């Protein structure tokens, strides 16, 4: 049985079932590097408080830096028989630094230590995720630029609505990701790295001594030690931001899936991002996009699991809070992988202009343009809406194309309608360019 950071008051060894049920090292080992960084900051505090000698501080720093180097190289092997990563690093450090390591936990509680580690992890992972969001935004903006002269049928309720610029379509998703980026940036901005909360009441070390530097960021004393060890708002905010990002990625994936079907046949997804069937030789399945779509449920579940876990907890730390890590790790890793694969997939999508143009030939797409034309000729919109609605109904019942109707047929609906006017209105370029309220690229 591994050595624990507690146990002096216990007369019996922990039941093996309890050991297995309560341990977290199998997932919190991801915090190893962050735990070492926190300990490096903590020994600086202890030295300033004269609770460590210069020699002890040197031994501990050397030992912790050695562990950190091994972690970064991938040479750090974790013994999962330990309760958690904090206990294991303590044990490794004792072998490296001897009795000096016994002082590492002075004025420190795992309650404070773990929230510091999770905050450290969150800041680093948020930075990586924000960079990946920007990469996908770049891919979307590039797709918009390549297709700035193309139009596509726009849909509402999954029905033909009105032509739109294909570039605007991609820019819409880029805009969603810009908001996702701002949400994640704001969540990260709200994370304060603090030390000195102890278990919940603070420590005997003067608050000013907790002002130390980790090199890439500053650490300070907790404003309220009870709140610090109890708080997981930052986890909830991050999970919320990642869930919304996952929703946007799912919607993008769904559109690409639809466009790749034989029914739409607007795009061809590169073979490298598709899979086949074990039975049907002809199949080319958009599995990558389907998993992006499916993962949205996991991201929502991760958010809800932490919200529900936190909702009834009394102050301060409770062991329930151990359950915040797996959802957090899962959401970061899921979204990061999705962003990577979509940024690679998108530039390789091929658009089938001929099939897209077939949909743009649907005259019903231009009904709003026809109504707007009547409005410009003095007809109230409600009346114009009714006139064009009747014209579309006549077209569908008669089987005639509006562009082929004689002038007398058209004028029966309104005197200003004629063949020449309809020819200009039933045009995707003219339709798109006539919309001036939104900025056109």
What features would you describe in this structure?
The chain is mainly alpha-helical and 441 residues long. The protein folds into three domains: 16-106, Fumarase/aspartase (N-terminal domain) (Fumarase C, Chain B, domain 1, Orthogonal Bundle); 111-357, Fumarase/aspartase (Central domain) (Fumarase C, Chain A, domain 2, Up-down Bundle), CATH 1.20.200; 362-433, Orthogonal Bundle (Ribonucleotide Reductase Protein R1, domain 1). Helices cover 58% and strands 6% of the residues. The chain has 17 helices and seven strands. The protein has helices at residues 16-22, 25-28, 32-48, 54-73, 85-97, 110-146, 166-189, 225-230, 233-260, 287-310, 325-345, 353-360, 367-376, 381-398, 407-411, 419-425, 428-433, and strands at 151-156, 159-165, 194-195, 212-213, 218-221, 267-268, 350-351. It has a three-stranded mixed sheet with strand order 3-5-4. Helix 4 packs across helix 5 (85-97), helix 6 packs antiparallel against helix 7 and helix 6 (110-146) runs parallel beside helix 11 (325-345). It is elongated, with a radius of gyration of 31 Å. The chain starts with 15 loop residues before the first helix and ends in an 8-residue tail after the last helix.
